[in-house]
From TrEMBL:
This is Outer membrane protein beta-barrel domain-containing protein. It comes from the Bacteria. One of its GO terms (cellular component) is membrane. Pfam families: OMP_b-brl (PF13505). Transmembrane segments: none annotated. Keywords: Membrane, Signal.
């Protein structure tokens, strides 16, 4: 399992809590109406390169990978006073991978560290404490990702991988036209099962 490869995966995301707040234009917090927990099925494509350094009993593996993720990662809620929604449209991930492999090279275990950039839609609307908020934000968000993975060779140029990855995007304060605001703090974990084809 060395050299260039391409692959794809199916995944399911498990969101981290984004407690939605409603601040009036004065800066006062007037409501915390609910929590968004973005998650759902998604899929990915990737291309990468890897190599290994032989040692006694084990080999050290390292590589770099560029991935594209799309699908149904999102969440929403509606209460008597507020509605909120998050939708992760798609995102790119640049991953550095490093770990160990068995000397025959058919199994490897590794960690993941990387950078992510996502196209994200976020909205909050409602009324509380005499203030009305109507925020709609469509922006690209930068983030960092950490993960663990295992990969097993099925034949000379085909392998199966299982990875868990947590991505945390930078927080942002979004304002509406009247100055009311909410703080956006998106993040989610993603469990991925896929195939890699070496070439």
């Amino acid at each position: 399992m060395e050299g260039f490869y391409a692959g794809g995966d199916l995944a399911y995301a498990f969101g981290s809590r984004d407690d939605v707040g409603h601040r009036a234009s004065s800066g006062q917090l007037v409501a915390t109406p609910g929590t968004l927990v973005p998650g759902g099925p998604n899929w990915g494509l990737k291309i990468g390169w890897r190599d290994k350094i032989q040692s006694t009993g084990l080999a050290f593996v390292y590589g770099v990978e560029l991935g594209y993720i799309a699908g149904g990662i999102g969440d929403s809620f509606s209460t008597a006073t507020h509605q909120a929604e998050i939708d992760v449209k798609r995102h790119l991930a640049l991953r550095l991978k490093g770990g160990v492999a068995s000397i025959p090279g058919d199994m490897q275990f590794y960690g993941i560290l990387g950078y992510a950039r996502a196209d994200l839609d976020y909205s909050v609307a409602g009324t509380a404490g005499g203030d009305t908020i109507s925020v709609s934000d469509q922006s690209d968000y930068d983030g960092v990702l950490l993960g663990l993975g295992v990969e097993r060779a099925l034949r000379e140029n085909l392998s199966m991988m299982l990875e868990y990855e947590y991505t945390r995007f930078s927080s942002k304060t979004a304002y509406d036209a009247g100055g009311s605001s909410t703080v956006i703090t998106p993040g989610f974990g993603n469990l991925r099962l896929g195939l890699n084809f070496a070439f």
